[in-house]
Amino acid sequence: SPYNNNEPLNGVTTADLVGIQRHLLGKEEFQSGYQMIAADVNNNEGVTAADISSLRKLILGNVSDFIQWNGQTSWRFVDRSENLTDNVSPWPFTESVSYQDVVTNMFDISFDAMKIGDVNGDAVNNGLTGNSTRGNGSVTMLADDADLSTGETYTMEVTSEDFASISGYQFTMKYDVNTLSFAGIESGALTVNGANIGTSRIDEGMITMSWNDVSGDAVSVEAGVALFTMTFDVVGNAKASQAININSVMTRAEAYDEDVEVKALTLEFRNGSSTVEVFELYQNVPNPFKG
Fold this sequence. Notes:
Layout: H1 14-24, H2 33-39, H3 49-60, E1 75-79, E2 111-115, E3 138-144, E4 147-148, E5 153-160, E6 166-175, E7 180-187, E8 197-198, E9 206-212, E10 228-234, E11 238-239, H4 240-243, E12 244-247, E13 254-257, E14 262-271, E15 274-276
Parallel strand pairs: 3-14
Antiparallel strand pairs: 1-2, 3-5, 4-11, 5-10, 6-9, 6-12, 6-13, 7-10, 8-9, 13-14, 14-15
Helix pairs in contact: 1-3
């Protein structure tokens, strides 16, 4: 009985949510039982919208593993002789084999491994959580810079000039807790709510975000139109550009085009017509010495 419950986020991103959504809507249905097993996040022998909700909680950092969903583990293993390549209803499947009176070496016992949540198959099997390849352009989110004063409310309207045919995105937002306190998020051209936000490390000034359209389609938004709006209570004086940035400390910052290819994702502040450069150094991700 093979077993591996390590690195739950290995190969798991919002791109996988897009894949599950498109399967459920019949737009790009899974072609193998292996994908179905990977998509069955809550381990109830089926794939539904509940699996999307559960997986998003993991991506956002609101949960740390799969175990609360019927004892689900990070990887599942299937006896290779079952060959689920064309079988889109794999349950029940064989996860262990038993032999008695073994008198010779058993070299031909093989299992196929599925990384739970990874329906697009980009998990790595060497124990390190790899970065996605960013070779397909970028999406820059924009916000107006502002002078923040204690006692005020800062409303950050986020726009973009290149939000064209985007099927989803995710990021970690870091803000200075001595300057700001996160108060909420509101929809703009994109429909977002509390389910799209992770607040497990909000006391450190970190929130995560994961979005994909419920239609499963890619979305385009015109320049200057608000994607969404974030609200902060101001508890200290500073420039907004000095207090807020997007990074990959928890949830990796990236966006996905209509083919679910990865794009880089950044946040820039505008002061009139000029761009305010923001630099901040964080722990490298992945950290080759972690674990």
